[in-house]
Amino acid sequence: MKEKMDQFFGITESGSTYKRELTGGITAFLSMSYVIFVNPIILGQAGLPEDAVFMSTIISSALAMLIMGLWARFPLGLAPCMSMNAFFAYSVVLQMGKTWQEALSSVLVASILFLILAFSGARSKIIKAIPMTVKHAGTVGLGIFIAFVSFKNSGIIVPDEGMFIKFGGFNNPNVIIAFFGIITAAFFLVRKNQYAVFLGMIGAALCGLFIRFGASMDWFHLSESVVATLPQLPKGSPVVVPTGPFQSMMNETFLVSVKNLDKMLSLDSLIVILTFLFLDFFGTATTLSAAATQVSDIRRENFEDNKRIYSADAIGTFFGSIFGTSSLSTYIESVSGIIAGARTGLMSVIVAVLFLLSAFFYPVLSLVTPAVTTPAMAVIGIFMMQNITNIKWDGGFEEIIPAFLTIVMMPLTGSIALGLVLGFLSYELCMIFAGRTKEIPKVMHVITVISIAYLFTI
């Protein structure tokens, strides 16, 4: 049995060992496990039942990683993408007015299109057509958008009549919790600890429990409504059979995406589908490119040109939409498993098993509040912000203007799609103004036409 596994995964051939694959799997799981608790909070704001999302996150992620490990045989982890769930909740549902059921159907259609692209030559043509300045600016804009939303949800930022927004103040204990978590995450980031996101959330949760305990002891005078927003320990055992979440998923979100496919024929639905496709497609490409830079002994093309990796991503998103969560994507955090020594798909299988086991810790969700998730969202914003150095700020205004509009308009308008659309349109116009029309790929003209059509839907 051991020899057959070795041959199947190529463990000895790749220079790895079972111990290194196990260590890498545990490391990758701890690095990306925060999504299990953060994803329900974000999608819950769009109206999805949190316990159902908790279960669908685990099942779809596990299935995607089993496909990655057993078929693509590559050491990468997949789970609902943190920028995609933000687009799903805040742009598609809360801003555009789509129901979460329709949004899930959009994800389903986008996953099918992604799968088709993954097996065709169109994938490379589209990647080459999108200007690098918009790709990097889009990542930066997403990072700022995600951080902005998390700051708003935790009370760090509040509405203001004069300046539109202002600092919420430390009289709100959730602001203290969020900042304590950010400081904790910053400490571990500076010390190059790969679990910084996870530990930042732990720090925030512990701070919240301390404040709750202090309020019960009359150390702090807080209203009951404020205390209710604080993290709390599970009532009863922290380990249970997840019967409730599983039933909630089966009753409320399972196959909902299929039942609403008839509503995908409108122009605004088409724009949503294409935006999901774009974000998933280029998010995966960016992640794989970043992953390739972290491991010197694995060739870059093995990541970026591997059709099975892209297909595993698309199939994972398909399952996610079926069970009830937003698009899945390859997680850059899972590269920590490769850095820890893993080199084969066995690592992905181990992470999948650990995800499934985490379903039995459902009561721990009571510890996870918007303030507790803020450190994770802030760190994600920090990582995505680093792409700003890849933008050619000295490449002329035909590079600068699209980058500026993409970055600024995402958080200021609360629309990820609009930021991308304005980036595409401004790039095309500026290239024309600069007399460089012949340098614009033909596929980019098609994207521009779709972008113009989108503007008429808002």
From TrEMBL:
Stored Pfam families: Xan_ur_permease
Keyword terms: Membrane, Transmembrane, Transmembrane helix, Transport
Signal peptide residue numbers: none
GO cellular component: a single term: endomembrane system
InterPro entries with a match to the protein in the record: Azg-like, NCS2
Top-level taxonomic group: Bacteria
Localization (cell): Endomembrane system
Gene Ontology MF terms in the entry: purine nucleobase transmembrane transporter activity
Membrane-spanning segments: 21-46, 52-71, 78-97, 103-122, 134-151, 171-190, 197-215, 270-293, 314-332, 338-357, 364-388, 400-427
Membrane topology type: Multi-pass membrane protein
Predominant place of localization: membrane
Family: Belongs to the nucleobase:cation symporter-2 (NCS2) (TC 2.A.40) family. Azg-like subfamily.
The protein, known as: Nitrate reductase
